[in-house]
Amino acid sequence: MAKKFQNYINGKWVDAKSGRTFENRNPANWDELVGTFPLSSKEDVEEAVKAARKAFDTWRLVPAPRRGDIMRKVGDLLTSRKEEVAQQMTREMGKVLLETRGDVQEGIDTAYYASSEGRRLFGHTVPSELPSKFNMAIRVPIGVAAIITPWNFPMAIPTWKIFPALLCGNTVVFKPASDTPATATTLVEILLEAGIPPGVINIVHGGGTEVGIALVEHPEVDLVSFTGSTSVGKKISEIASRSLKRVSLELGGKNAQIVMDDADFDLALEGVLWGAFGTTGQRCTATSRLIIHESVYDKFTSMVVSATKKLRLGDGLKSGSDVGPCVNEKQRQIVDEYVKIGQAEGAKLLAGGKDATGDGLSKGWFYEPTVLGDVTRTMRVAREEIFGPVLSVIKAKSFEEAIDICNDTTYGLSSSIYTQDINNAYRAIRDIEAGITYINSPTIGAEAHMPFGGVKETGNGHREGGWTVYDFFTEWKTVYVDYSGTLQRAQIDSVDR
Q: Which residues pair with residue 248 across a beta bridge?
C-alpha cells in the first residue's frame, strides 16, 4: 500500500484541513503509486505562516555559526541517505539514477557550503568622516520566506533556497512542486533530524493556485523565492509588488550551444547530447538550440543525429537507460505539439518526433529524443521554451552571426561555445547575453559555490548559489556608534565651511 504523506506545520505532521488529497505516480510506470499527499488550501498556508512568524522571534537570535552546525549535519545526513533519496527521486520524476544521485550531491554540496557561511556572514567597517565615531554595516535576517520550487530538481533547487534562508536566520514555508512532493518531504525530515526547531521549517503541499498564490499574497510573508516558468514568475512579481515583498525569480531559458568550424567535434557532440537530452531536456539550462557554423553544419548535424538515435530510453532505475520519461502526460503532449509546430514551420525532422511505446515504455510518458534540422531563428521552436527532449539545429554563416542568433531570444540563462580560438572564446564571454557562459562544455553543469541565474526574462536580477544568494536572504543594516560625548552633525561638522 502506498504511503500517505502529510504537511509539516508548527512542529507537527498534519493532514490538509479540507481532508483532500492528491496522488503522486511514477512517470516511467503510471500504474505505480508513489504516495498520496495533502491537497492544501489557504487555511493551511495561514497556519504555516503563523508558525513561521512566531518561530522567527527565537530563530533569528540563534548565532549564525550554530545555524551553520545544523547545516553541516544536514549534509552528513544527505550523504548517508544519498542512494535512498536518489531512488525515491527517480521514482517520482523519472530522470535516470545517475542524475538523481547528482541532484542529491548538489544538495550535499550546498549544505556544506551553507555551514561554512555561518562563520562568514561578513559585514563592513568603514571609516567615519567624524572623530570618535565608528561606522559599520551588518547583515540581519528578514523574516518569513516563502520557498516555491519546481519538479525537475526536487532536491538541489530547494536546498539552493532553503539552506541559505535558514542559515541567515529566516524561517521558511516550503511549497514544493506537486509532481515531486516525496523528495521534498524527505528533505524536511532530514532538516528536522539535524536539529531545525519546530516552526522554523514548514511544508505545505498542494497546487500553485491555492497554496503558492496564497503564500505570495500573505501579508506576513516577507520574501519569496521562486523557480519556474516565466509566465508564473511574472504573476508572482505582480502580486508581491503590491506589498513590496522581496522576490527572487529564476525562470525560463532558451539556451544555445554554438559549434564553430574549429571545434573539437567529438567533445562538442558529447556536450550537446548531455545538454539537450540530460534530464529528458527538462532543465531550465537545457541545450534547446544548436547553432553550427555553416562550413561544418552537415557534418556535425549528421554526427548529432546518429548519436541521438542510439540513446536508450527507459526507466531511470534500470541500468542502461540514458533518457527517462517526461514528468507527466501533459508535458509529453506539449513536447509533441511543439515538434508538430516545428515541422509545420518548415523544420526537418531528423530524429525522434513521437511518443516512445516500445518494450518497457508503454506505461510511462516517454518521448523519443528529437532533432529538428534547418530551423531558423524566427520559428517558434527556436524561440519558445519546450522543456523536453527536442533540439533545434540552426545554421550560422560566421562567429558574429552565431552570437547574434544566440542573443536573439527573450531569455538569457545559459550559453555555450565550442571553439579552439581563444580570441573568439573571450569575445563570446563578452558578447553573449546570458547569466552563464560555458567554453567547450555544455549549457548544463552549475556548481553549488557559483552564482546561478540569468538576464532578460530569465529572472529579476537576483542570483542563487554561491555567495550571492546570501545577499537576497539578508537585509543590510547600517550602524553608527558615536563615542565622542558631543553632538556631531555629519555633512555639517565634518566640512570646514
A: 225
CB < 8 Å & 24+ apart, contacts of 240-245:
240/216, 243/219, 245/216, 245/221
pLDDT digits (tens, 9 = 90+) for 150-178: 999 999 999 999 999 999 999 999 999 99
Give alpha helix (H) positions in 151-264. Answer: 156-167, 181-194, 213-217, 230-241
CATH number attached to the domain at 255-439: 3.40.309.10
Q: Which CATH superfamily is domain 3-251+459-478 in?
A: Aldehyde Dehydrogenase; Chain A, domain 1 (3.40.605.10)
Check 92, 106, 210, 284 and give the catalytic one.
Answer: 284
Contact (Cβ atoms closer than 8 angstroms) between residue 56 and residue 143: yes
Q: Spell out the domain ranges in the chain.
A: 3-251+459-478, 255-439
How far apart (Å, rounded) are the C-alpha atoms in residues 417 and 402? 10
Instruction: Classify the C-alpha dihedral 28-29-33-38 as positive or negative.
Output: positive
Closest C-alpha among 22, 124, 216 to residue 478: 124
Active-site annotation holder among 99, 106, 210, 250: 250
Helix, strand, or coil here: 485?
coil
Angstrom distance (rounded) from CA 165 to CA 85: 22
| Gap between the Cα atoms of 291 and 374, Å rounded | 11
Is 168 annotated in the active site?
Answer: no
Over range 267-281, report the average pLDDT.
98
352-398 per-position pLDDT tens digit: 999 999 889 999 999 999 999 999 999 999 999 999 999 999 999 99
Sequence-separated (6 or more) residues with CB below 8 Å from residue 457: 230, 251, 252, 410, 411, 412
Sheet order of strands, 348-351 included: 348-351, 370-375, 390-396, 287-293, 255-259, 415-418, 438-439
Q: Distance between CA 30 and CA 37 in Å, rounded?
A: 16
Q: Is 210 a catalytic residue?
A: no
Q: Please, are residues 301 and 350 in contact by the beta-carbon 8 Å criterion?
A: yes
CA distance 270 to 287: 12
Q: Are 327 and 179 in contact (CB under 8 A)?
A: yes
Range list of β-strands (E), 277-414: 287-293, 348-351, 370-375, 390-396
Cell of 186: 524527505
User: 448: how many CB neighbours lie within 10 A of its CB?
Assistant: 22
pTM score, whole prediction: 0.97
Q: Which residues contact 420 (CB under 8 A, 6 or more apart)?
A: 262, 263, 264
